[in-house]
Amino acid sequence: MNGLTGKLHTYHAVIALLLALTGLVLHSQLFREEFAFLRTYLNSLHVVIGLFFMLTVVVYVRAIANARESLAGNIRLQGITVGWLVISVVLSFTGLLLFFAIDLYNLAGVGTLTLHRWAAVFGISSGLYHIATSLYSQQHCSTADKTAVTNGHSLQTSRRSFIRWSAAVGALVGGGGLTKWLFGLSTNTDWSETNKKYKDCNKMVPQPSPSLGSLPPVGGGYKGNFEVFTVTPIPCADSDTWKFTLSGLVDNPMSTTWKGFLDLPRVVQVSNFHCITGWSVYNVTYEGIALAQLLNLAGVQAAAKYVKFYSGDGVYTSALSLDQAQSSDVMIAVLMDGQPIPSDLGGPARLLVPQMYAYKGVKWLNAIELISEPHIGFWESRGYENDAWVRGLKK
Ligand SMILES: Nc1nc2c(c(=O)[nH]1)N[C@H]1C(S)=C(S)[C@@H](COP(=O)(O)O)O[C@H]1N2
Ligand SMILES: [Mo]
């Protein structure tokens, strides 16, 4: 027992605490806004602390193996140990998968972040329970000898079980709150209620008709879940008023209605979608206008070096270098798995840059401008890389 509660226990506890703190902060609203520029560093720190955590788990397993005899009779301690071990292993495994997600490609994909979050919920709430109950029993133990003599034992026992039960209830309530927070969609906005109402509020007539390959989707249907991310309320588009413009340093500026936009030639592609916060969606069959083709039609002037993208929300922008914008898989998508893109996911038209993090994928795209100087977009000006290549995908 001593071997398990000595220095090793302290190290392990402190590291677990740091891991929980950095993980919670990474998920917080604050780090999607004011402190976005720290995200990548904090993420690396979280991973490094995670490696130390794994190290203490390994050492722990050895210590437990040595202390087998002292565990033998103690069902409660066995339960704690096995439970904690399972949580630690799941956390470590999903953490590693997430870190290598892009390199492992489809393998790591769907559900890894979800599993990591669930393990965090169980880990944090059982950790809190463990702290609460053992803090009490430490106090209790120091006076145990005296009280045993004065025969207050049954009182002690009932008080102890009362503490245990309150700690358990506290952990359950805390765990419930944590679950709600970690799994709430649109967690990055104050608009979640409004967004539910406007899940698909676009009124576009006609709908784009899917070409061969789009329906049924050649990718076989996307795998994973989109988390709706928006820094504004979801704007609703109407084909009567919707306009798309291409302007700036081009020979043939363009301003077109929805009908004209649908007359532009479209291509079909299967691509993956990676958000920098760790979730991905795989094998999405998109149909849309290849940006390189559109730029060709517009006749890009020699002075143009960058392409700036505007959103119908009036707030969000992003930009690519001309080179990046001409990558063959950059498109303005209007169909996803053969269906019009719903307004919460950026329809009627959204930008896709599959090899970059999805903050480059401007939703509700309605204007493109060719410019000579770099533009720093919404998230980029809050610290995200301007060259947003997904690690491992850069050509
Ligand atoms: N207009 C607009 N486009 C946006 C965003 C946004 O907040 N507003 N968020 C970006 C980010 S960070 C991501 S991960 C994706 C999310 O796309 P989804 O909401 O369709 O899942 O959209 C990107 N495009
Ligand atoms: Mo994102």
Short structural description:
With 395 residues, this protein is of the alpha+beta class.
Structure description:
This protein is 46% helix and 15% strand. The chain has twelve helices and ten strands. It has 395 residues and is of the alpha+beta class. α2 (7-27) runs antiparallel to α3 (39-66), α3 runs antiparallel to α5 and α5 packs antiparallel against α7 (112-149). A five-stranded mixed beta sheet has the order 2-1-10-5-6. Strands 3, 4, 7, 8 and 9 form a five-stranded antiparallel beta sheet that branches. β5 and β6 (317-321) form a beta hairpin. It has helices spanning 2-5, 7-27, 39-66, 68-72, 75-99, 101-104, 112-149, 153-183, 192-197, 258-263, 291-298, 322-325; strands at residues 243-248, 254-257, 267-274, 280-290, 306-311, 317-321, 331-336, 339-340, 350-352, 365-371. The ligand Nc1nc2c(c(=O)[nH]1)N[C@H]1C(S)=C(S)[C@@H](COP(=O)(O)O)O[C@H]1N2 binds next to loops.
Largest sheet, strands/sense/barrel? 5 strands, mixed
Low-confidence stretches: 143-152, 185-192
Helix content: 40-55%
Query: DSSP strand (E) fraction?
Result: 5-15%
Question: How big is the Rg?
Answer: 27 Å
Determine the number of helices (DSSP H or I, runs of at least 4 residues). Answer: 12
Query: Which small compounds were modeled alongside the protein?
Result: the ligand Nc1nc2c(c(=O)[nH]1)N[C@H]1C(S)=C(S)[C@@H](COP(=O)(O)O)O[C@H]1N2, molybdenum atom
General form: elongated
The chain-level structural class is alpha+beta
Going across the biggest sheet, name each strand in turn: 2-1-10-5-6
What is the H/E string?
Answer: HHHHHHHHHEEHEEHEEHEEEE
User: Average pLDDT, to the nearest integer?
Assistant: 85
- Calculate the terminal CA-CA distance, rounded to whole Å: 54 Å
